[in-house]
Amino acid sequence: MTQPSQSPVATEALAESAFLLAARGEPVPHTPVWFMRQAGRSLPEYRAIREGITMLESCMRPDLVVEITLQPVRRYGVDAAIFYSDIVLPLKAVGVDLEIQPGVGPVVASPVRSAADLAAVRPVTPADVSYVTESVQQLRSQLGGTPLIGFAGAPFTVASYLVEGGPSKDHAKTKALMHSDPDLWHALADRLADVAIAYLSIQIEAGASAIQLFDSWAGGLSARDYAQFVQPHSAKVFAALEQYGVPKLHFGVNTGELLGLMSEAGADVVGVDWRVPLDEAVRRITAAGGSPKPVQGNLDPALLSAGWESIEPEIDRILAEGKAAPGHIFNLGHGVPPTADPDVLHRIVKAVQAKSTRG
Ligand code: CP3
């Protein structure tokens, strides 16, 4: 695969970017900040460009992927871009019949319930997603010293959409499958690990500087079930990507009880939602004897509408608590809600960068 051409200056700026330094636990010029779901409906320029085009269609057009990925970078001056795509895109690319319904999320026409249904799930090849390679290469040359984060859904979170047939609050069918037919569960999760490995490798080989594995809904599991049914499959993904030497971030919502196990799965940076303070997160990551790691987070997205007098002290608190970790990447505790005010997000970026600047 051809590597995108990068000037030596851009390559050096990238290696010394605040985001990559923090992800490696090295000293930073300032605490880097980006937002999960920074691209999307909160931006008027996103709503305009998406008019009349479905979500998945937009993910398959390099002109749109590049523009939508760059929109929040331009507007906010964030320290990293995240590739515009979706966790179900690789499944769509191999022919799984699914769509993303606005205001709902991914909906799968024929949920996976038996061994025969597994045949529909195979890893993507570069030929299946040539538009991903092309988009990442273009982004790499346009982003200069700003890192691009590639991403994929972790086996459990993607499985939950496939098994439930769509979004679910309690993931009851997925949990029932794990316990009633562990062989089928492990076969499905193993396939989804291969899907994530293939999809992330394609993004890294095209020029992504880091990857984030989203296990958004893992927080619904007990630590015991997570350790038995989920961790080995996420660990397989991280182990397979080790060879690339790029930082690997891992995140889920409501994972306070799982932070140690998610760290042990092989993450270099552990994402934390707003429920657990970052210093306490570091304690939980190291409790089982693990070494401290950089953390990412964790402003409550609900506070975006609370007014600056409420937000600023939270930024100060989070920056202070983040000092307990060898590296801190500022983020929200989950994605930007569609109702967020872009001016508030911009102000947060400026404040985090200014307050944390080393003199
Ligand atoms: O800016 C970014 O973070 C990059 C793009 C991104 C999208 N999806 C674009 C998107 C990322 C990283 C994702 C990952 C994703 N997709 C996750 C993990 C992150 C998380 O939020 O926990 C999950 C669980 C999904 C599945 C999914 N896709 C959901 C729940 C939804 C929202 C449905 C809705 O309309 O409320 C989507 C759709 C989606 N993915 C949108 C975007 C910008 C909104 C669709 C639209 O604009 O019409």
UniProtKB/TrEMBL annotation:
Give the enzyme's EC designation: 4.1.1.37
Q: Where is the Uroporphyrinogen decarboxylase (URO-D) domain?
A: 32-41, 149-165
Q: One GO MF term, please?
A: uroporphyrinogen decarboxylase activity
Q: Which GO terms describe its biological process?
A: protoporphyrinogen IX biosynthetic process
InterPro entries this protein is in? UROD/MetE-like_sf, Uroporphyrinogen_deCO2ase_HemE, Uroporphyrinogen_deCOase
The highest taxon in the source lineage is Bacteria
Where is it located? Cytoplasm
Q: Pfam families given for it?
A: URO-D (PF01208)
In what pathway does it function? Answer: Porphyrin-containing compound metabolism; protoporphyrin-IX biosynthesis; coproporphyrinogen-III from 5-aminolevulinate: step 4/4
GO cellular component terms attached to this protein's record:
cytosol
Positions marked as site (Transition state stabilizer): 86
According to UniProt, the reaction catalysed is: uroporphyrinogen III + 4 H(+) = coproporphyrinogen III + 4 CO2
Keyword set, alphabetical order: Cytoplasm, Decarboxylase, Lyase, Porphyrin biosynthesis
**Which amino acid positions bind substrate, per UniProt?**
37-41, 86, 161, 216, 334
What the record says about family reads:
Belongs to the uroporphyrinogen decarboxylase family.
Which purpose does this protein serve, as stated in its record? Catalyzes the decarboxylation of four acetate groups of uroporphyrinogen-III to yield coproporphyrinogen-III.
Subunit structure, as described in the record: Homodimer.
- The name of this protein is Uroporphyrinogen decarboxylase
**Lineage start:** Bacteria, Bacillati, Actinomycetota, Actinomycetes, Propionibacteriales
Q: Which gene encodes it?
A: hemE
